[in-house]
């Protein structure tokens, strides 16, 4: 979608142009660098607000379709939050009550629905081979959890706990992957792990010439939520490193 827009339209809906200190809007290739150095070659459009009047009008029906998609993701996220609370022995709405403002706006909650497009890598594109660009560098999400819907193009890999080997995440039609973030990992005293993951260009002959589409729903707790594993575990068994400053600096 966004990669087809003219430069003027992209600039009009660019992230930070719509609202100051807001993550909503268009993100051009190279703007984000998970390792702090290497530009990442992908197009993205972030949706962080309820108001449909700030959605691009150049795409007919987009606002209506996104509105329904947003509600579907919020409904699924709410169900998972309630299930997790029961699983760790807390009241059913414990986590849900701390995620009341998902997709309201960044001043209340950082939850983001992100549309992603990774363009094809052509035979003339040497940037990947030289390491000048990546599709998505290795990182852990710092949210509560991420819901990911992806197409059949490969490239997503995860690194399991205690392993240095990257494992491919396959594609199951109609399935949504659930990826635990660092916030939920700390909150549950590492009962759940935030796994490093990345998006590479597959080495087979066909995949580099194909684009890759995905939808990611990054669920964050409300901005005024105080994260503490003390809510869930015995005080004597707390690993105080589980809520280190690095996590909370990322969330500011």
From TrEMBL:
> Does the keyword Phosphoprotein belong to this entry?
no
Arranged from A to Z, the UniProt key words for this protein are: Iron, Metal-binding, Oxidoreductase
What Pfam families would the database entry show? 2OG-FeII_Oxy
Cite the Fe2OG dioxygenase domain residue spans from the record. 109-221
User: Would the keyword Oxidoreductase turn up in this protein's UniProt record?
Assistant: yes
Query: From the UniProt record, which GO molecular function terms apply?
Result: metal ion binding; oxidoreductase activity
Q: Which PANTHER family match?
A: 2-OXOGLUTARATE (2OG) AND FE(II)-DEPENDENT OXYGENASE SUPERFAMILY PROTEIN-RELATED
Give the family this protein belongs to, as stated in its UniProt record: Belongs to the iron/ascorbate-dependent oxidoreductase family.
Q: This protein is called what?
A: Fe2OG dioxygenase domain-containing protein
Task: Provide the species name.
Answer: Drosophila willistoni (Fruit fly)
């Amino acid at each position: 979608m966004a990669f087809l827009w003219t430069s003027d339209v992209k600039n009009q809906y660019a992230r930070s142009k719509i609202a100051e200190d807001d993550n909503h809007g268009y993100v051009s290739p190279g703007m984000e660098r998970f390792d702090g150095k290497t530009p990442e070659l992908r197009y993205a459009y972030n949706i962080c607000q309820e108001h449909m009047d700030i959605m691009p009008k150049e795409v007919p029906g987009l606002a209506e379709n996104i509105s329904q998609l947003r509600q579907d993701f919020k409904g699924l996220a709410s169900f998972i939050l309630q299930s997790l609370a029961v699983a760790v022995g807390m009241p059913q709405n414990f986590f849900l009550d701390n995620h009341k403002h998902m997709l309201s706006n960044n001043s209340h909650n950082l939850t983001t629905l992100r549309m992603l497009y990774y363009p094809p890598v052509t035979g003339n594109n040497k940037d990947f081979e030289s390491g000048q660009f990546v599709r998505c560098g290795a990182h852990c999400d710092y949210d509560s959890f991420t819901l990911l819907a992806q197409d059949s193009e490969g490239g997503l890999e995860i690194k399991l706990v205690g392993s240095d080997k990257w494992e491919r995440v396959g594609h199951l039609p109609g399935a949504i992957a659930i990826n635990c973030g660092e916030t939920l990992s700390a909150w549950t005293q590492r009962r759940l792990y935030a796994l490093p993951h990345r998006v590479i260009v597959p080495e087979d002959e066909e995949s580099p010439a194909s684009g890759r589409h995905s939808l990611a729903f990054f669920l964050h707790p409300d901005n005024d939520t105080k994260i503490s594993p003390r809510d869930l575990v015995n005080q004597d068994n707390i690993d105080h490193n589980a809520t280190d400053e690095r996590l909370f600096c990322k969330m500011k």
